[in-house]
Specification:
Pfam families: PPR, PPR_2. This is Pentatricopeptide repeat-containing protein. Keywords: Repeat. It comes from Solanum tuberosum. This protein has 167 residues and is an all-alpha fold. It has 2 domains: 82 residues, no CATH class; 68 residues, no CATH class. Helix content is 75%, strand content 0%. It has 10 helices and no strands. Helix 4 runs antiparallel to helix 5, helix 7 packs parallel to helix 9 and helix 9 runs antiparallel to helix 10. The protein is elongated and about 50 Å long.
């Protein structure tokens, strides 16, 4: 995709644009375009349109990557559709998809908001298995989760990590 077109599409997504998606399909059916459309509808809180674009991308022959899958899960999170998010992951994993840091990070954040501490920590371990440090946002989610669940020791640990990363 030409860089100029890509930048326009990225700007459109950041602004939460979702009104004229069809014209973007005419521009390009590249994976990046598809991912940005899923991301836009996810941010707009429209999981049905996000999933439509996700499925269309697959129909075009693209395999969803970690970033696109994370965007789809964000769309489900906006409407608290955990069952659909987990079903999507199971479908994708059956087809060979392996979640990465982006997907796990979104899920850690979501599970943390629901105070599902054990489940969030299991996913945190999966991030560590990929030899990558969890993103800053994950540490914020962990700190919030532990603080709201009154797990003082872990909240203080998470806060320490945040302070260290901020310096």
């Amino acid at each position: 995709m030409p860089e100029r077109t890509s930048n326009v599409l990225k700007s459109w997504v950041r602004r939460g644009g979702t009104k004229s998606q069809k014209k973007w399909w005419r521009i390009s059916a590249l994976l990046e375009s598809c991912t940005l459309l899923v991301e836009a509808f996810g941010k707009a809180g429209d999981p049905d349109q996000a999933r439509y674009n996700f499925n269309y991308m697959i129909k075009l022959g693209h395999k969803p990557d970690d970033r696109c899958t994370a965007s789809m899960i964000v769309a489900y999170e906006k409407k608290n559709l955990l069952d659909k998010a987990l079903n999507l992951l199971m479908e994708l994993e059956k087809d060979g998809f392996e979640p990465g840091v982006a997907t796990y990070s979104v899920l850690v954040d979501w599970l943390g908001k629901m105070q599902l501490i054990d489940e969030a920590e299991q996913l945190l371990d999966k991030i560590a298995e990929q030899d990558e440090a969890p993103p800053f946002k994950v540490h914020i989610s962990l700190c919030d989760m532990y603080a709201r669940a009154n797990v003082e020791k872990k909240a203080i640990q998470a806060l320490g990590v945040l302070e260290a990363k901020q310096e």
